[in-house]
Automatic annotation (TrEMBL):
<dbReference type="GO" id="GO:0004722">
    <property type="term" value="F:protein serine/threonine phosphatase activity"/>
</dbReference>
<keyword id="KW-0460">Magnesium</keyword>
<feature type="domain" description="PPM-type phosphatase">
    <location>
        <begin position="53"/>
        <end position="286"/>
    </location>
</feature>
<protein>
    <recommendedName>
        <fullName>protein-serine/threonine phosphatase</fullName>
        <ecNumber>3.1.3.16</ecNumber>
    </recommendedName>
</protein>
<dbReference type="InterPro" id="IPR036457">
    <property type="entry name" value="PPM-type-like_dom_sf"/>
</dbReference>
<dbReference type="GO" id="GO:0046872">
    <property type="term" value="F:metal ion binding"/>
</dbReference>
<keyword id="KW-0904">Protein phosphatase</keyword>
<comment type="similarity">
    <text>Belongs to the PP2C family.</text>
</comment>
<feature type="region of interest" description="Disordered">
    <location>
        <begin position="221"/>
        <end position="241"/>
    </location>
</feature>
<dbReference type="InterPro" id="IPR015655">
    <property type="entry name" value="PP2C"/>
</dbReference>
<dbReference type="Pfam" id="PF00481">
    <property type="entry name" value="PP2C"/>
</dbReference>
<dbReference type="InterPro" id="IPR000222">
    <property type="entry name" value="PP2C_BS"/>
</dbReference>
<keyword id="KW-0479">Metal-binding</keyword>
<keyword id="KW-0464">Manganese</keyword>
<keyword id="KW-0378">Hydrolase</keyword>
<dbReference type="InterPro" id="IPR001932">
    <property type="entry name" value="PPM-type_phosphatase-like_dom"/>
</dbReference>
Length: 286
């Protein structure tokens, strides 16, 4: 499990020494996050006079048959991109396959490097982010990492002043807490890219993929009954993607970075959210 949580605060908390931050410097906050039980860090967004408090948690999921399985998650926290106090990146990368850990770390590292050096980032964040993902995907194919059957999903949030650019590739997720009267509601910032979505189902079918659950592949269910566009039933195996004449890759998501055997598209989906006083915090998780 990987998670990055960012809390939006309307006023600056007092800094330990009363001084200002240097570029890229992280300041620990005095309290701990209630869920992660790790120290909160803070970063100022000076253009709109608020701060972000943030914390992280990464933990290997429990697998009964492989208790010593490698944690393939990685996370990204990069404050003050290009030494700009109003630009920050938070993200989670969920690797999969034999070399999933290498893939998630590769994408994590290169994303920060590319965004930090892209002079067009603030002029056109949508274009810059899409170009970054496509470049990273190509670089991963050409690297020493075998990504034929391995890759990573990616969910990241670029904070530019009071605007969030939520960038999704795969089935990791971002949500935001919104105050609505006396209630606090969770709203999706991203939509999972799986074949449960009708548009993704139709797209991968046009690319030549077979969309079948494990039960359909093994003959326990009718392979002619498609699940595209339907809600996932708890406990059932999701529809997965297979090449036309083979029993792989079997992924439950329809986009990722890497996975060169199955790849037809690695373009991320990007949503834009303007922060208001009713937005309390956001969370990126695998």
């Amino acid at each position: 499990m990987g998670c990055v949580n960012g809390k939006c605060c309307s006023r600056y908390p007092s800094s330990p020494d009363g001084g200002s931050d240097h570029c890229g410097e992280l300041r620990p906050y005095k309290s701990k996050h209630i869920l992660t039980q790790r120290s909160l860090e803070i970063v100022h967004v000076s253009s709109h006079n608020f701060t972000l408090q943030y914390s992280i948690l990464t933990q290997l999921g429990y697998y009964q048959d492989t208790v010593e399985r490698e944690n393939q998650d990685s996370f990204c926290i990069k404050t003050q991109i290009q030494c700009n106090p109003n630009v920050h990146v938070f993200g989670v990368f969920d690797g999969h396959g034999q070399y999933g850990a290498q893939c998630s770390n590769f994408v994590n590292d290169r994303l920060v490097e590319i965004l930090s050096s892209d002079s067009t980032l603030l002029d056109d964040p949508l274009k810059a982010y899409t170009s970054a993902f496509l470049a990273i995907n190509s670089e991963l194919h050409d690297s020493e990492i075998d990504d034929t059957m391995s890759g990573t999903t990616a969910i990241t949030v670029l904070v530019v002043g009071d605007t969030l650019y939520v960038v999704n590739d795969g089935d990791s997720r971002a949500v935001i807490a919104v105050k609505n009267g006396d209630q606090i509601l969770a709203e999706d910032l991203s939509v999972d890219q799986t074949s449960f979505r009708k548009d993704e189902y139709e797209r991968v079918k046009l690319c030549g993929a077979r969309v079948l659950s494990i039960d359909q592949v093994e003959g326990f269910k009718d392979p002619n009954i498609q699940n595209g566009g339907e809600e996932e039933n708890e406990g059932s195996d999701p529809p997965r993607l297979w090449i036309p004449n083979g029993m792989y890759p079997g992924t439950a998501f329809t986009r990722s970075v890497g996975d060169s055997t199955a790849e037809k598209i690695a373009d991320p989906e990007i949503s834009v959210v303007k922060l208001t006083p009713n937005h309390l915090f956001f969370c990126c998780c695998k």
